Amino acid sequence: MSRRLDDIPVYELIETAVNASNYNLVQIAFKRLGEPIGIPLTGLRRLELILDHEAWIVVDHDMNDIPILAWTDFQIVNRHALHESVLCHLKTYHMHASIILDRVTEFMEKELAIRISEQKKTCEIENIIPLKKQ
Q1: What value does the mean pLDDT take over residues 92-103?
Q2: Are 44 and 63 in contact (CB under 8 A)?
Q3: What is the DSSP string of 25-47?
Q4: Using an 8 Å Cβ cutoff, are 86 and 3 in contact?
Q5: What pLDDT, in 10s, does the model give residues 82-97?
Q6: Which pLDDT score, from 0 to 100, does residue 94 have?
């Protein structure tokens, strides 16, 4: 999906940073849930956030999966500690993309926390060994 971003004109390119807690949460989700991870953005038309190592992309399913916004080019090479934000580019492909930016990160935080918690519970249940009386 991230390769497709190069074929679409960018409305605005912003150099920004993803806060450490969000970046770390996504990395934990990749380790536990695999990738890519799709998160439907309930209440925001038919938008979906697709997470992979190269980019975090919000696409509009009603418009043939055209991107609305994307975080790309994560600068992790010079990151020396887990509490440091990660520099990246925020590419917007729609003039109103910034309106949904905060809601997208809220959806991502909540949904990944739920999925990781459910996956952890499943693993704990599967790994329980019953004790037998002798």
Answers
A1: 88
A2: no
A3: HHHHHHHHH-S-EEEE-TTSTTE
A4: no
A5: 898 999 999 999 888 8
A6: 87
Distance of CA 57 to the CA centre of its chain: 8
Closest by alpha carbon to 25, among 117, 119, 112? 112
Structure-token pair, residue 68? 């609305």
Calpha distance 25→76 (Å, rounded): 15
Q: Name residue 46's amino acid.
A: R
The answer to whether the peptide bond before residue 36 is cis (omega within 30 degrees of 0) is: yes
Per-position b or e across 20-57, b if 16+ CB within 10 A of its CB? eebbebbeebbeeeeebbebebeebeebbbbbeebbbb
Long-range contacts for 32-36 (Cβ within 8 Å, ≥24 apart)?
32/116, 32/119, 32/120, 33/115, 33/116, 33/119, 36/1
Q: Which is nearest to 1 in space by CA: 47, 54, 60?
A: 54
pLDDT reported for residue 113: 92
Taking each helix axis as running N to C, give the angle between helix 20-33 and helix 97-126, from 0 to 180 degrees, rounded to the nearest 10: 40
